[in-house]
Design brief:
The chain is an alpha/beta fold and about 270 residues long. It contains 10 helices and 12 strands. The protein binds adenosine-5'-triphosphate and magnesium ion. Keywords: ATP-binding, Nucleotide-binding, Transport.
Length: about 270
């Protein structure tokens, strides 16, 4: 488990390139009143890697993603991103820095079409405001066209052309999850946070989602941090795994190390989930 990583990164046995540290969480503690959701946790996320966060229900996994995405501000600890300490920020400011996310409970506009939902993912990137649009319609129109083209590329990439006009509320669960991924990708994130992207899916939907996550990582070079309960998926997808239990970190390393880590087996792998 205690493994020395170089500052510049390394190449894995199956040829995956893990780059330098992109995000570093230093001694994070997060409390809700008397409840300690996270206790003194440190870990890093490296450029290009798929980093899994696992642990039993209530371990503090979603809270950790919420700290990274700026939804929660920890009482203690520091968040470093791209080599700089991040001051307390609002979620939209974090999004502007290139961090996008999906939610454990899907957060989409049910009455809006798939296409329009994905467009909302580009809001943080839209430069011209309404007043500018009125004064300088040429630039605004050009921008709108570029945004639409980018969204269409994502729709093709995630193979959801056939539902692009469908209201999200009418879609089955598995497809809603895919649309949520599309919305997050529309922001062209450097770091993508996925909170249980495969929860509640059948085997076929899970396989599709795994493939898309790997493709996003591979083709766009997007760094990914994901929370997942399915250990098969975690072992297949991730380069390194952080294990949490009752708000504490009890393991951190490549999947093979985690599988044989006694504390992890006792706390988590030995019992069934979901
Ligand atoms: N907004 C909140 N207010 C109060 N307590 C919270 C809040 N969010 C989380 N908690 C508490 O913090 C702890 C960690 O919750 P969290 O949702 O981060 O766990 P999790 O590992 O994501 O669990 P799960 O696998 O069930 O999604 C729990 O005890 C939870 O009740
Ligand atoms: Mg959670």
């Amino acid at each position: 488990m205690a493994q020395a990583y170089s500052t510049e990164g390394w190449i894995t046995a199956d040829g995956r390139k893990i780059g330098p540290v992109l995000m570093e969480m230093k001694n994070i503690t997060l409390r809700f009143g008397g409840v300690k959701a996270i206790t003194d946790i440190s870990f890093d996320i490296r450029e290009g890697e798929i980093r899994a966060i696992i642990g039993p229900n209530g371990a503090g996994k979603s809270s950790m993603l919420n700290v990274i995405s700026g939804f929660y501000v920890p009482q203690e600890g520091e968040v470093w991103f791209r080599g700089a300490k991040r001051p307390p920020m609002k979620p939209y400011e974090v999004a502007r820095q290139g961090i996008a996310r999906t939610f454990q409970n899907i957060a989409l506009f049910e009455g809006m079409s798939v296409l329009d939902n994905i467009m909302t993912g580009r809001l943080t990137m839209m430069e011209t405001n309404l007043a500018q649009q009125a004064l300088w319609w040429g630039k605004a129109a050009r921008e709108e066209e570029e945004h639409r083209a980018a969204v269409e590329r994502i729709i093709d990439f995630l193979e959801i052309q056939h539902i692009r006009k469908t209201p999200v509320g009418r879609l089955p669960y598995g497809l809603k999850k895919r649309v949520e991924l599309a919305r997050a990708l529309a922001a062209e994130p450097k770091l993508l946070l996925l909170d249980e992207p495969m929860a509640g899916m059948n085997v076929e939907e899970k396989e599709d989602m795994c493939r898309f996550i790997l493709d996003v990582n591979d083709e766009f070079g997007t760094t990914i941090a994901l929370i997942e309960h399915d250990m098969g998926v975690v072992m297949d997808l991730s380069d390194r795994v952080v294990v949490m239990d009752y708000g504490k970190k009890i393991g951190d390393g490549p999947p093979d190390d985690i599988r044989s880590n006694k504390a992890v087996i006792d706390a988590y792998l030995g019992v069934s989930h979901e």
